[in-house]
Structure formats: C-alpha cells, structure tokens
Write a structure and sequence with these properties.
Layout lengths: L2 E6 L9 H12 E2 L4 E7 L5 H5 L4 E7 L9 E5 L1 H8 L6 H14 L5 E7 L12 H20 L5 E2 L6
Parallel strand pairs: 1-3, 1-4, 4-6
Antiparallel strand pairs: 2-7, 5-6
Helix pairs in contact: 1-5
Length: 163
Amino acid sequence: MRTLLLGIGNILLSDEGLGVRAVEELKSRFKFPPYVELMDGGTLGMDLLYFMEGFERLLVIDAVLGGNPPGTLYKFSDGEVKAYFKRKVSAHELGFQEILALADLLGKRPNEIVLVGMEPESLNISLELSTTVKERLHLLIEEVLKQLDDWGIEYEELEHTRA
C-alpha cells in the first residue's frame, strides 16, 4: 500500500517545525521501499490535498498542543485524528482539519491516517528545536518506526548513521 509520511509545521517557529525536522531525520537515517514517500509538508495548507492523493496510508508528524508537559508524545489513529484536529490541538490545525474534511468530501481520504506528535516547549521565532524537544526527538522517530512496523513496512538504517 502506498504510504505517505508527512511532516508538517513552520520551521521558523522552533518546535512548530518538529514534523518537518522529523522527516528530515528519517530521510537522512533510513532507506524506505519505493511505495513509501517522505514529504516536508511545511505550511502548505490546502495544497497538501493534492500531494496526499493516491496514498492508502498517511502518517502525519506534527507538534501537538495537548496541554501536557513539553516533550510528551501523542499518537492518534483514524477517527481520533479528525476529532483532535477539530479540537485545535495542532498549531496549524484549521488548515489540516479542512484538508481532511475536503479529502472525505472528494473521496480522496487515505484508508488509514495516524498522527504522531509531541508537545512543543517553544513556539518562539527560531530555526532550532527547543532543548527538550531536541533531546526527545529520537523517541518520536521510534514511535514513527513502530507505526511502520505495525503496517508491515520494512526499512533499513543507513550505514553512516549507525553508532
């Protein structure tokens, strides 16, 4: 099944760019099969609908404003994703909520949607992730890889990234 790993967020606002930074990390450390695409969705908004088309599975990586301590991990599946975006837990939730609604309306919604995210520590202007989020980024990556394992997707760690 065609799978899209989509990192969304604004890299100019510190931890708001977490999803994009996670996708960059995944691209640099792992090799994925040809049916898995990794995409920096940045702040594309409604344009993401075009890029999501034709994928059966969607894994979104994003900063999640859930009211818990910075660095807290979140994972939402299918209907939970839509419900949580309706409650405005993402820093750019309205755009993604509308994308999901329009994808449903047009019959272009992926069969499975999972959101993996982390509570941000800072949304201040900065190109760097906060200390807390940077130190816990590996846990977010592990959660993404666990989801790929659950979907039966094989990946390979690149030699130059092994310790």
